[in-house]
Amino acid sequence: RYNPEKKNLAVIFQGVIFQVSRQLQVFLQKTEKEQTASWRPSAVCISEHSFDRLAAFDMLRWISQRYGFGTYIHKITGYLSKSTHQEAKKSKDRLIKMAEASDSNIYIDTLISPSYTSAVAQVIQLPGISGTENNLLLTEFSKMNPDNLEDIVDNFKLIKSVDFDLVILGTTERGYGLKQSIHIWITSNDYENANLMILLAYIILGHREWKDGYIKIFAIYPEENAEEEWGRLHSLIEAGQLPIAPHNIEVIPRKPDIDPREIIAEKSKDADLTIIGFREEVARHEGAAVFKGYESIGNTLFVNASEQIKIK
């Protein structure tokens, strides 16, 4: 039976919680920002395929569960109108139910925008839900139907203008397989990405859904200078700049006529997640081709760090 007094109490309680939340946000905003040495992910994900592909939603859940914070933005293409507003409300309700069902700690919202560029411009300016600034953008595309990959590549300059770490998830029908093996691929061209790649792998393994998981690291170098590059990598490890043990790395010399993608496809064909670094300047020059050629392996996380993260 309807009880007006209970409704009034509920409204008052809601107002109190809102005020406490706002005060907490102000307090966090005033606190000194964390330095790079104590980096932790404050990630925001944007996708318009939330109900077709769950891989990005899951990735954000894992990254945010224990060590960081996450905001998931479902993009609706179009202009603000009564119909798109209703669609946004329904989509948000569906996503909140998904978040509750998976016991995740991510904040859900929707964004109505006529273009991917305008959506990205708004998303990278969003305040972090923790009171700290967002520092990582997660996007996704389907390897089998990469219709939105060009949009992601075309907005690299915009994304990197705010010094975000950029993570692009290439998804497959296989998904994350058994959620056990994570393969990390390091080359001499992207040492600056290595720490972020390794850190993300450890964060993912920290989630209960990956409780039986393990990490395997590969270093692939041109055959003629593989020994020299291994010495360089070993020096970085000895200096504490890479948080890995030398015996956990498999060094692979590559012949000049062999495409690195062939080696990755062979070694990581059964991996449940493969993590590969990429350089911004190469991606700008070669475009979407940088992220193609990995269709025979499972879900792939392409990582570009805004700066080398020091792990202490």
Structure described in brief:
By secondary structure, this protein is α/β, with parallel strands linked by helices. The chain is 38% helix and 22% strand.
Shape: globular
Low-pLDDT runs of 5+ residues are: 32-36
| CATH class membership of the largest domain | Alpha Beta
Q: How many alpha or pi helices?
A: 10
Number of domains: 2
End-to-end separation: 59 Å
| Beta fraction | 15-25%
Largest sheet: 10 strands, mixed
Protein described:
The chain is of the alpha/beta class and 312 residues long. The protein contains ten helices and ten strands. The termini are far apart. It has a ten-stranded mixed sheet, with helices on both faces. The protein has two domains: 122 residues, Rossmann fold, CATH 3.40.50; 141 residues, Rossmann fold, CATH 3.40.50.12370. The radius of gyration is 21 Å and the shape is globular.
